[in-house]
Amino acid sequence: MTAHTPPPPTMGCRNAPLLKERGQHEVFCGLTGIIWLHRKMQDAFFLVVGSRTCAHLLQSAAGVMIFAEPRFGTAILEESDLAGLADAQEELEREVDRLLARRSDIRQLFLVGSCPSEVIKLDLSRAAERLSAKYAPRVRVLNYSGSGIETTFTEGEDACLAAMVPALPASDERQLMMVGALPDVAEDQALDLLAQMGLTNVSVLPARNADTEVSVGPNTSFALTQAFLGGTHAALERRGARHIPAPFPFGEEGTTAWLRAVAQDFGIDQARVDAVTDAPRARARKAVAKAAETLSGKSLFFFPDSQMEIPLARFLTRECGMEALEVGAPYIHKALVAPDLDLLAEGPVISEGQDVELQLDRCRAAQPDLTVCGLGLANPLEAEGLCTKWAIELVFTPVHFYEQAGDLASLFARPLRRHDLLKLEAAE
Fold it and tell me: Where, in this chain's numbering, is [4Fe-4S] cluster bound (predicted)?
C-alpha cells in the first residue's frame, strides 16, 4: 500500500516577492555551533581564539562545569594581545602545543575565529597551516570563523564543514555524501533507510571520527540535511560533487521526498523506496496527527534565526494544518530551499534578513497564535501575551527523518498547550 501525500500547491513560493530587510538583527553568535559539533565529532577539539566573553558564552551554552574535560576551549586574548603588545601568533602556538601535549586523543583541531580575533586581524589560516604541518599526520589543524559579526548562529557549522571540504581526499567512486551534523540517532536511521534502498557507498560529513574515510570527486552526489549549509554546498561543488536538490527531511512528506530524490539520482526504482518507507511513513503520519490536533488551524510567524524556517514552515502548514503569516529567514539560498518553497502554498510574507523593530511591528499587528523566534525576543513577546517557540531548540533536538516527525510537531504543540493552560489558570 502506498501512502497518500498532499499534492503540491498550484502556486508555490519559489517566485514569491521577497521582503528584503537590512537593519538591526537579533541572532545568536556563530560560536554556539560548537556545542553540537563537538558532540558529533568525537576526536575533534574546538579552540576559540577570543575573549573571556566567548569563554563564558560557550560554558553557559553547553552547561559544562569548569573542572570537566570538554572538547572545546578558549585561547583568551588579553589586553596586550588586543593592543598589539604581544605576538598573538606565538602565544597561540604555545597554547596549542600545551593542549596537544596534554590531550593525546585529539585528532582534529579547529582554530575558531571570534569577533575579537577578527577585529585585530589575527591570521588563523596561517597558524592552522603551520600547526597542521607540525603535527601531521597525527593531528589535522583547520580554521574557520564563528564570529557573531553579521552572521547567524547556524553559520558556525556551515563554516566548519566548508573548511573541511578542501582537505577531503579525492575519489572517482560513485557515492552519496550525506551532509550536515545530525544527532547520532537520526543519522543512524537515515543510513539504515538508505542501505535498505540499496545504497551502501554512503559517507557522512562530518564523520564521527577522523579515521572514517570521507572523500569527494566528480562521481559524488551530496544530499544536504540542514538548510543552512550554503558555504559547504559551494565548497563541495568546487570539488566537483553534484548537489541533489530536495525538500529537507522534516516530517513524513519531506523525508519521503528527500529519499526519493536520492533514489532517482542513483537509479533506484520508486517501488523499492515505497517498500522500504511504507511502514515508517505510517508511523510518522500517526505521530504527527496527534500533535496536529493542537496545531491545526493555528497561525504561525517565523522570525529569522536558524535558516531552517522555510522547510519548517512547509512541514507545519502541509502536515500539521497551520497557517503561515510570515516566514523570515536570515538568508534565502534558493539552490537549497527552492524544493521546499515549491511546496509552501502562496500566501505568507517571505522575508530575508531583518530589521527587528519593523518585524516586531508586523508580528504585533498579525497577532499569530505561535511565534518562532530567538531567546532575546521570546520573553518580551511572552510578556505581551504572545505564545512563542525558541528557535534554537530546533537545532539541538533530533527532528529529522520519520521517527522524529512526531517529536518535531510536538515541539510546536507544547508551547501552545502551555499557553492555553496558563490562560485557564489566570481565569480561575
Answer: 29, 54, 115
